[in-house]
TrEMBL record:
Keyword Oxidoreductase in record: yes
CDD domains referenced in this protein's UniProt entry, alphabetically: Tetrahydromethanopterin_reductase (cd01097)
Lineage: Bacteria, Bacillati, Actinomycetota, Actinomycetes, Mycobacteriales
Molecular function GO labels: oxidoreductase activity, acting on paired donors, with incorporation or reduction of molecular oxygen
Keywords: Oxidoreductase
Occurrences of domain Luciferase-like (ranges): 9-214
Protein's name according to its UniProt entry: Luciferase-like domain-containing protein
Source species, domain of life: Bacteria
Amino acid sequence: MVWRPDGDPRTLAPFCERAESAGVDEVWLWEDCFLHGGIAQTAVALMSTRSLVVGIGVLPAPLRSVVATALEVATLATLFPGRVQVGIGHGVQDWMRQSGVAVASPLTLLREYVTALRALLAGQTLSVAGAYVRLDGVRLDRIPDVAVPVLIGGTGPKTLALAGAIADGVLLDCQHTAASVRAALEHVARGGADRDLDAFRRVMYLACAPSSSDVRSRLVEEAQRWHVTPETDFGVGGSAEAIRDGAAAYRAAGIDTVVFQPIGTDPDPLEFIESLQRR
């Protein structure tokens, strides 16, 4: 499940506790400007639970140095082994310009950043002189005992291909139908043609409206907000059977982890869990 950061941060801990008790495997957290920090959210989610896996999806690469990200992620993964995964993305370019950190080539930065982050978390001593990432003999003193999956989040063909080429997985947002997911994963596969992708993660946020009334109109409205077509193929909702069948179409298209994302204005995160449990 997704915990959306446009809600009250004081609901995060009880949401994660309830999610874990309901048998949810993973909770994913956004870092959207200018809401709540992804690292801080993750620490709260991990401290509030005992076994829940927490994903950060995504951290914008321009906002913090790769060493700072490696330090934070390594600390969390050392304290909570096997329970942390992180997605890295370009960041929304308007927000990056607003923050004064936009770069001329977001794809180059993402390539250098993810390559360096994976190497640092694996315990390597790193010296690089890239266009954006420049390190001189950097090595983390404490390396997580359990490897941390580093995913790339993105939408464009080049970014998707980059995920297949260098990352541990790809994170797709909810702006997909089952048909467009298949096409997106084809870009990933082409990028990873020279790699073994058997352990590669294919994660997607899936818009979900677990309601018995106005499900289709709510999903169509959400599809229009994201400019997704055809609108009638967007998201899942309704009964347990309808949600299961709808998610199965995305699994059949190649997604291995479906992350249910509540839709609408100011959704109640606890009610979202309870409504799915009731169904």
